[in-house]
Amino acid sequence: MAEVYRCKYLTGLRLKVFLAVANRIIPPDGSVPEAGSMATAGIVDWAMERMDPALRRQLLLLFLVVEPLGILFGGKPFTWNRDAAKDRQLRWMESSPFRLLRLGFFGLKAYVCMGYYTREDVWKSIGYEGPLHPEVPFPDAVIRALSQGRMEVVS
Questions:
Q1: How many domains are there within the chain?
Q2: What is the CA radius of gyration of the chain?
Q3: Ranges under pLDDT 70 in the chain
Q4: Strand locations in 11-134, DSSP E?
């Protein structure tokens, strides 16, 4: 039986919003692994544990703002909207006149990309051979197992 990583921060609605946002920031196309997956969420959740607590609270609050904000862009909460409405909302957030929303979007995008491109199954699909010095150990056995897909991620 594989080891299990239980998400501490990305649970419930926050997890649902994270997965939907991840699939719009890195849209699935069938040729690469999906960004909006539990594998990506597990890595991001692991990294969130290491964030400054105040910053983590702000990022977690952003998920709760993104969902109802979707009503303004597609008539429904973010996770229920069609992809075009989700994209409109994220583009608006990216260039929002509201500094906190703009900064929040870039923080969220950075975490989605970090979580996705840390996954070794993604490396193979984009032709990346891995680190220049693979003998250098990861700082933590959990992130190593998550990046290699050896750990099941649950919420």
A1: 1
A2: 16
A3: 1-2, 134
A4: none
CA distance 86 to 36: 14
Structural domain harbouring 120: 3-154
Distance CA(113)–CA(111), nearest Å, equals 5
What is the rounded CA–CA span in Å between residue 5 and residue 106?
26
Distance CA 46, CA 50 (A): 7
Return the half-sphere exposure (C-beta side, CA atoms, 13 A cut-off) of residue 29. Answer: 8
Greatest pairwise CA separation for the chain in angstroms: 51
Cβ 50 vs Cβ 41: under 8 Å = no
Is 71 exposed, middle or buried, given 0-12, 13-18 or 19+ CB atoms closer than 10 A? middle
CA torsion through residues 6, 9, 11, 16, sign: negative
Report whether 13 contacts 64 (CB < 8 A).
yes
DSSP H/E element including 4:
strand 3-6
